[in-house]
Amino acid sequence: MRLDSFLPALLLLSVITTIQPVLHWDYMVFTQQWTATFCTFKHCVRFPESKDFTIHGLWPNSWPSEEPKDCPIAPDFTQNVLEPIIDQLNEMWPDVLNSEDPFDFWKHEWYKHGRCAIEDELIGDELGYFNVSLGLKKRTPILQVLLQEGIEPSNYTVHKAEDIIAKLHKGFGTLPILSCMKKHKETAKLLEVRVCYNPSLELIDCVPNIHTQLESETISEEQVTNAVPCPSEVLLPEFT
């Protein structure tokens, strides 16, 4: 091949190999759930094998805090793909509402969020989506950090939400977001801790919730059964 015809081909190959996949989102929210709170408000049929935070999901988001649009249709969810990590999923990402089919919860997360997440070449496919999530759980051991900072599960000890955020900030180096559940005239209970990652899977500050602090009166009129921003004071309840 002549050199003058070889160089354009080489240049084209270089361009193709450096093109990055298009992302329809800006960052990901990795959410871990405190089952002791969740099961106070929902009818749970099983509990985690360990009394720890468990994975709720890994959710791509568009700036500032919206679900992404125009993600590709997800490939079919294939149970067999997850066989190499099934024991870890049962431990760290259990479905506490369904004891008969543990795949239901994972299937839901895959079709809703995984289809967007796999645009990231560091995730890539179904096994990658769930395996990366397990890895992020190990990188952000929420309960371990809280215990080291003197915050233990208790049905009586009330904590300032800002103190919990500060201790997690100290542990991970970035700002998380907290969500809670609450019963009428009772102290709110910590439900979720959300940490955020860029497409390179590096921790970043989460986008502050528009209503970062809800006054207690705002959510004291009725029982809240969905995640809401935590008020100023919260409990981290014990497992029963």
UniProtKB/TrEMBL annotation:
Task: Report the SUPFAM superfamilies cross-referenced here.
Answer: Ribonuclease Rh-like
Specify whether Disulfide bond is a keyword of the entry: yes
A UniProt-annotated Pfam family: Ribonuclease_T2
Annotated signal sequence is: 1-24
Name a single GO biological process: RNA catabolic process
* Residues annotated as catalytic: H56, E109, H113
Q: Which controlled-vocabulary keywords does the entry list?
A: Disulfide bond, Signal
Q: Does the keyword RNA-binding apply?
A: no
InterPro entries xrefs: Ribonuclease_T2_eukaryotic, RNase_T2-like, RNase_T2-like_sf, RNase_T2_His_AS_1, RNase_T2_His_AS_2
Q: Which residues form a coiled coil?
A: none
A single GO cellular-component term from the record reads: extracellular region
Q: Which Gene3D superfamilies match?
A: Ribonuclease T2-like
Q: Which GO terms describe its molecular function?
A: ribonuclease T2 activity; RNA binding
Please give the PANTHER family that the UniProt record associates with this protein. RIBONUCLEASE T2
Q: Which family does it belong to?
A: Belongs to the RNase T2 family.
- What protein name applies here? Uncharacterized protein
Organism equals: Paragonimus skrjabini miyazakii
Q: What is the lineage of its organism?
A: Eukaryota, Metazoa, Spiralia, Lophotrochozoa, Platyhelminthes
